[in-house]
Specification:
The complex is a heterodimer.
Chain A: E1 5-7, E2 10-13, E3 19-24, E4 31-37, E5 44-50, E6 53-57, E7 64-68, E8 74-78, E9 87-94, E10 105-106, E11 110-114
Parallel strand pairs in A: 2-11
Antiparallel strand pairs in A: 1-3, 3-8, 4-5, 4-9, 5-6, 7-8, 9-10, 9-11
Chain B: E1 9-13, E2 18-23, E3 32-38, E4 45-50, E5 53-56, E6 61-64, E7 70-75, E8 84-91, E9 103-108
Parallel strand pairs in B: 1-9
Antiparallel strand pairs in B: 2-7, 3-4, 3-8, 5-6, 6-7, 8-9
Classes of the chains: A mainly beta, B mainly beta.
């Protein structure tokens, strides 16, 4: 187990609704990244937070937003849900090592279904 | 960010050694090579990470030639539970990870 937890496990929403997904990072980690994984595809990077600030963003529209809290937990918010937003949403936490490497450890994911 | 290329799928039998090779021709000097394993509907699991030569841990070995333009993940004596998708990623520090479609490994009895 990685120590990264996500909630909820599964979620069903309808088009146009808003959703908030939550992630608790591994103890001692200060960086959280979010990924979207559609069925049969590799995870796609959404954005990363480092010490409560956004630290990079992938090719996702502004209706995908996030937060990182002082305890380094994080939220992913998606507004105006579309059918194509149905996917597994993954959270990964990391801490830069003394040698400069940054290994990301993933949570179990939240399965979002948009009807 | 370096692009990676891996086989789409591989088949093996229990007890065999499996080698999955990844090409990353434009790897940067500071980039590390990381492999993840993913089971259906679960988050990717970190397997191994290396920079050059050979790295070994309790589950796998990673071979990296001197030019670092490719790497090979070696899984000794696979079992049915090793059936999964394996991703090779190249990057450094807090770079966002770019996942490809990975290699789907199927292990047969």
């Amino acid at each position: 187990e990685t120590g990264v937890t996500q909630s909820p496990t599964h979620l069903i929403k309808t088009r146009g609704q808003q959703v908030t997904l939550r992630c608790s990072s591994q103890s001692g980690h200060n960086t959280v990244s979010w990924y979207q994984q559609a069925l049969g595809q590799g995870p796609q990077f959404i954005f990363q937070y480092y010490r409560e600030e956004e630290n990079g963003r992938g090719n996702f529209p502004p209706r995908f937003s996030g937060l990182q809290f002082p305890n380094y937990s994080s939220e992913l918010n998606v507004n105006a849900l579309e059918l194509d937003d149905s996917a597994l949403y993954l959270c990964a936490s990391s801490l830069v090592g003394q040698d400069g490497t940054d290994t990301q450890y993933f949570g179990p994911g939240t399965r979002l279904t948009v009807l | 960010l370096a692009k990676t290329t891996q086989p789409i799928s591989m088949d093996s039998y229990e007890g065999q050694e499996v080698n999955i090779t990844c090409s990353h021709n434009n790897i940067a000097t500071n980039d590390y090579i990381t492999w993840y394993q993913q089971f259906p509907s679960q988050g990717p699991r970190f397997i191994i990470q290396g920079y050059k030569t050979k790295v070994t841990n309790e589950v796998a070995s990673l071979f990296i030639p001197a030019d670092r333009k490719s790497s090979t993940l070696s899984l000794p004596r696979v079992s049915l539970s090793d059936t999964a998708v394996y991703y090779c990623l190249v990057g450094y520090n807090t770079d966002k990870l770019i996942f490809g479609t990975g290699t789907r490994l199927q292990v047969f009895p």
